[in-house]
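Example record

One chain of 327 residues, shown exactly as stored in the release files.
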Amino acid sequence: MKDMIARIRQNRFLVVGRVGMDLFPDPGIATEDAAHFTADMGGSSANIAAGLVKLGAQAALVTCVSDDAVGRFCVNKLRHYGVDTAYVKAVGGEARNSLALYESRVVGHQSVIYRNGAADFEMTEADVEQVDYDRFSVLVAAGTVFAAEPSRSACFRAFELAHAAGLPIIFDVDYRPYSWPSARVAEQVLSRAGALADVIVGNDDEFGFMAGGKDKGLAKARDLAATTASIVVYKMGEHGAISITADGEMRTGIFPVAALKPTGAGDSFMAGLLSSMGAGHGLESAILRGSACAAIVVARPGCAPAMPTANDLERFLAEHTGPTDAT
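Predicted structure tokens for this chain:
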């Protein structure tokens, strides 16, 4: 555990996974009623990378983008947010970047995701073998990267190379059913990835899915913490989180806000958790700061643009009461 924390505190993150384009109408407007949309960057891994940089860490993304205007838009946005794009490769053919249309409203919220022939699934083992792992102190992967080949094998290869270089592996379960060929394949692959990770973050639905039933999810999280992982964070939405380590379990609450939308919270939580650990905060403080980041993002339009800066986070913590009592 001490060696892992020391590596995280070097604050140099290698993030593996997708980047895409987000389109969202003005707050409160339904997609079908919108006259115009705001375009920005999306994709779970790209959002985490952008969030880390905005909070003061260094981050590079390993992925593939389409060799077209949308792919170039995504690369430009990564650079806008300060994410290192040295390991972002353009691919031709019919591959396309993922596209998400979602609304800034809670009641009646709609999200439409286009992922057919996704460019990020074109990432190969050769791509991850080109990475200089000695440049980084931590590898972060979101579960979606495992949903199809060759990306799945590429990310498992990245895990091997990161482990050989001494990098702890952070795994965000991030289960998105629409990306997978079947639930059975997803359960097997995500469980395999989880068994290789040092830190695992997921919600109660995701752990339940890996365990074969939501009622078994917490037991699955506890088993991972007892066997392979140093830290397991079991998120329960409005009920807070349970963090499990060899020292026991810790329950933490959330920071209530008037939410504008339900999207982006998980990515922001991960960025806040890791950047706070990188800045020297203990686990409880880092979990709460991650929860504050999640609260900030759901109260703003967009995902990457909604990610807080370090000053935003400190201002939020100074101005908001909380967190709630863990339940």
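Notes: The radius of gyration is 18 Å.
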